[in-house]
Amino acid sequence: MPTWVQVMTRVTEANVPHAPLWDAGWYRPAQHHPSPNFGPRPNSTAVDLVVLHSISLPPGVYGGNAVHQLFSNQLDATAHPYYAQLVGLQVSAHFFIQRDGSLSQFVSCDDRAWHAGRSSHQGRENCNDFSVGIELEGLEGDPFESAQYRCLLTLLPALALRYPIAAIAGHEHIAPGRKADPGAGLQWQWLQAHLGWAPRCFPEGVLT
């Protein structure tokens, strides 16, 4: 019997180009910027969670290449006073969606990116092991752009076609008290309505 994800995504398959969307975990429509900050997933681990984050460098400043440089360990610590606290930090996400909807990928989704840190989802620890991390260019609590939502509405169904995605959460939901992104500015209800994913796939309380 097909899973709810397979049923949900059948309607999108007619819009999938004949050329494969994926190449060994790399999403072809994204700009690829391979990061050194990744590792293998544990054996036999299903990739069934999407984690949404927000990031901007420096905070609240949009555009530029600072996020790309951070995920590539090439950020110039002298370029802004805020960057001093990021020296030696090795992090990554699978995807980064800029304000204009531009999509970059840093780590194959078949691999483990370093985006969630100490985290738990539905009783399972270490969300990096079984999740795909998507960074939205923004400041926690602030609104996101229409172009970013349009990108999500393409990327998320594509992920669900390749992986058994069963849930989506914010960083704040898997690391409460430690993280607060993406925050109240994310329109969870709008996202659920346009994706058509079941309410049970979303964090408790965000749809009410």
Q: Separation of termini?
A: 31 Å
> What is the oligomeric state here?
single chain
**Treating each run of at least 4 consecutive H or I residues as one helix, how many helices?**
5
Radius of gyration: 16 Å
Which spans of ≥5 residues are poorly predicted at pLDDT below 50? 1-17
**Element pattern in H and E:** HEEEEEHEEEEEEHEHH
Mean pLDDT: 92
Based on helices, strands and strand pairing, what is the structural class? Answer: alpha/beta
Shape: globular
Commentary on this structure:
With 208 residues, the chain is α/β, with parallel strands linked by helices. Helix content is 22%, strand content 18%. It has 5 helices and 12 strands. The chain has helices at 4-13, 66-71, 146-162, 171-174, 188-195, and strands spanning 22-23, 26-27, 31-32, 38-39, 49-55, 95-97, 103-105, 112-113, 120-121, 124-125, 131-137, 167-170. The protein has a 6-stranded mixed sheet. It has a two-stranded antiparallel ribbon with strand order 1-2. Strands 4-8 form a two-stranded antiparallel sheet. A hairpin with a 2-residue loop joins strand 1 (22-23) and strand 2. Helix 1 (4-13) packs across helix 3 (146-162). It is globular and about 45 Å long.
